[in-house]
Amino acid sequence: YTDEDILADSEISGGKIQIRDEAFDLLILPPLTHIKYRTFKKLIEFVDAGGRLIASTLVPFAFISGEGHDVQELESFFGVNPRAVADHFINKSDLALVSSESRGKGNIHVLQGPGLSKSRNRDLLDQVILSCIIPDVTIDNENVFYLHRIKDGYDIYFFVNLLQEAQGEVEITFERVGRPELWNANTGEIEPIHVYKLKEGRLSVTLDFPQTESRIVIIRDEAIGDHISASTLQIENQSDKSISGYLKSPSDPVAVEFETAGQKHQVTATLKKPLPSIGLGKKYRVITESDNVLCISKWKMKIAEASDKPEQIVGNDFDDTNWLGVTLGAWEMQLPIERDQATYPVDLWYRTSFEVEYLPKELHLLVDGFSGRSHKLFINGKEVCDPGTRSKLDAEIKTIAVSDFVRIGRNQVAIQLEANRRTDGILDLLKITGDFSLRETAEQQIIVAPRRELVIGDWTKQGYPNYSGTISYETEVDIPAAYTEGKLFLHVECGEDVLAVRLNDNAEIAVPWHPYKLDISGLVIAGNNKIVLKVTNTIINILEAVPKKSGLFEEPVIEHAHRYTLTLEV
C-alpha cells in the first residue's frame, strides 16, 4: 500500500515503480473520483515504460481542485468514460472487465461494478492479474501468505500459516529457479530442501505447515542438475549415490523418484515393521518454580464513623454481617444509594478472611490496587507495618512477609483506607503467595500443603487455579536399544503454553508453540532416561484469577521411525 505523494515521488525504472528498496510491476488503483495531477503524470510514465495498471470500481473524472488541467486526459488515459463507470457502481452492476488497453510498453485494465470487496469475484481478479504479470510465487493454499525480499544477493522468501490449524503439505512454486534451502529462524540451522521439481519452467517445492508455522526459504543461484523430484521419505542426508531418511507416514511405501540427465528413475525399499510408541506415564513428580497464589476479590466495607472502635474492627470476632458486600473497584460506585454530600477525604474499612490448613515457612501478601491517600493493613488483629519491597510480578506491586501474622484456621484481614476520590478503593485482587496448593469448596479456596505429584490434565484443577509460571514435570523412561537405531520424536500436548524439554544431561530445548514435537534422536540412550518437561503458562491466572487451562493435557509419547538408506542407481 502507498499514498499519492509517495507514488508521485517514486522513480520509474524498467517498467517498475521503485519505492526505496522495493520494486513493483503492477499497480492496482483503488476507487477514486479525484486524483492529483502529478500522481496522474506518474501513472502515465509508469505505463508508458512497461508497467501494468488495474483500475477498479471508480475511475478519476477530475483533478484535485485548483490544478486546472484538462480532465479529458483522464478519459483518454483510462480508455473509458469515468462517469459511465460510476453509474455501474451506483446501479450495483455485476463486476466486469470493461477495458484492456495497451499504451506505450504497458497496459491498463478497468473493472467496473460494485467493487472488489463487495463482489468477491476472485476468479476475475486472478485472471486480470495473471494477464499482467508472471507470478513471483504461487501457493496452493490461501491460508499461507508470503513476503519476498532480496538481501545481499539472496532471494529470501518468508511463508506463514495464518491459522491456528495445521494446513498439511502445501505446494509452492517460484519464478526464481535455483537450489532451495530451508533456514530455521528458531535454531539458526540451514538445511537443503532435498525434494523439488521443475514444472513449466518454475521451481516447485512442497512444505509442511503446522498451525501458525512459518518457513524461510532461500534460493541459491546454482544450476539445477540431478535432483530428487519425489519421495515418501523425509530425507536427512544426500550424496551423489545415495540418500537416507525416514518415512513421513509409517504406512507409506518406501519410494524415491530422482532425475538425472533429464530422465526420471525410481528406487524402492522393503517396509520395516513399525515399533510401538512409548508413553511417558500419567503421573509426574513436579516442581513449581514460582509461588502459588490465593486470590481474594470479595470484601465487606463500611464508611468509618467517630464511634468506631478500631481495635474491635480488626479482630477476628468482630461481626461485619451488616456491612456492605463489595468486590473490586471504585468504592463509591458500589454504594446502594448516593451520599448526601460527596465530601473527601473519606475513611473506609474493608474486611475479608481466608482459611489455612497448612502453613508454609514463607507467606507473602501482595499490595496491589490499594487506591487512596494512605492505608493500614491488619491481619488477625495485628497491624502489619512492613512497607514491603518490590515484587517479582511488577515493580509497582509490593510484597510483604506475613508468615508471622497468619495461623492455622480462619485468618482475618482488615484494611483502613483513606479515599480521596470516588474512584478510590481496593481495585485489584488481594493476593496471598507461597509454596502451597489450594483446595476448593463451594465458598472459597483453602490453603493446603503443596502437591509434589500431578497427573496428566489441567493443573488449575489440581490445586493451582491461580498459578502463573513454570511447573517442571519429571519422570524416567526405559528405551529399548532397537529404538535408538531409528528416529525418535517426543510429542507433547500443552495447549497454548511454552514447553521446554531437558533429556538426561543435555541442554534444555525450548518449544514455544504448536506443534509440540521434538526430534530427540541422539539425546536419549538405550536404557533408563531422565526427562523433564517444563510448562510455562500466561500471567492471566494470577493477575485476573482466571483459571486458564494449563499443564500437560495428554500423556506425552515417544514415537519411532525407521531409517532407510537407498542407492541412487540408474
Verbal overview:
This protein is 10% helix and 45% strand. With 570 residues, the chain is mostly beta strands. The protein folds into 4 domains: 4-133; 139-269, Golgi alpha-mannosidase II (Immunoglobulin-like, Sandwich); 292-446, Jelly Rolls (Sandwich); 450-562, Jelly Rolls (Sandwich), CATH 2.60.120.260. The strands form 14 sheets. It has a 6-stranded antiparallel beta sheet, with no helix packed on it. The longest helix has 12 residues, at 37-48.
How many domain units? 4
| CA-atom Rg in angstroms | 34 Å
Helix content: 10-25%
Question: If helices are DSSP runs of H or I spanning 4 or more residues, what is the number of helices?
Answer: 8
- Per DSSP, what share of the residues sits in E-state strands of 2 or more residues? 35-45%
- Gross CATH architecture of the largest domain: Sandwich
- Main sheet overview: 6 strands, antiparallel
What spatial order of strands do you see in the largest sheet?
41-25-43-48-45-46
Low-pLDDT segments, ≥5 res: none
CATH superfamily of the largest domain: Galactose-binding domain-like
Structural class from helices and strands? Answer: mainly beta
In brief:
The protein has 570 residues and is mainly beta. The protein has 8 helices and 51 strands.
Key descriptive features of the protein:
single chain, 570 residues, flat, Jelly Rolls, mainly beta, 6-stranded antiparallel sheet, 4 domains
Secondary-structure map with pairings?
Elements: H1 4-9, E1 11-13, E2 16-19, E3 22-24, E4 26-29, E5 34-35, H2 37-48, E6 52-56, E7 62-63, H3 72-78, H4 82-90, E8 96-103, E9 106-112, H5 116-119, H6 122-132, E10 137-139, E11 144-151, E12 154-161, E13 168-174, E14 179-183, E15 190-192, E16 197-199, E17 202-209, E18 214-220, E19 227-231, E20 233-238, E21 242-247, E22 254-260, E23 263-269, E24 278-279, E25 283-288, E26 292-296, E27 299-303, H7 310-313, E28 324-326, E29 346-356, E30 363-367, E31 370-371, E32 374-379, E33 382-384, E34 389-390, E35 398-401, E36 409-419, E37 425-426, E38 430-434, E39 437-440, E40 445-448, E41 453-455, E42 457-458, E43 470-479, E44 487-491, E45 498-503, E46 509-511, E47 517-519, E48 527-536, H8 540-544, E49 551-552, E50 557-561, E51 563-567
Parallel strand pairs: 4-6, 5-7, 6-9
Antiparallel strand pairs: 1-2, 2-3, 8-9, 10-13, 11-12, 12-18, 13-17, 14-15, 14-18, 16-17, 19-22, 20-21, 21-51, 22-23, 24-50, 25-41, 25-43, 26-38, 27-28, 27-29, 29-36, 30-35, 30-38, 31-37, 32-33, 32-36, 34-35, 39-40, 42-49, 43-48, 44-47, 44-50, 45-46, 45-48
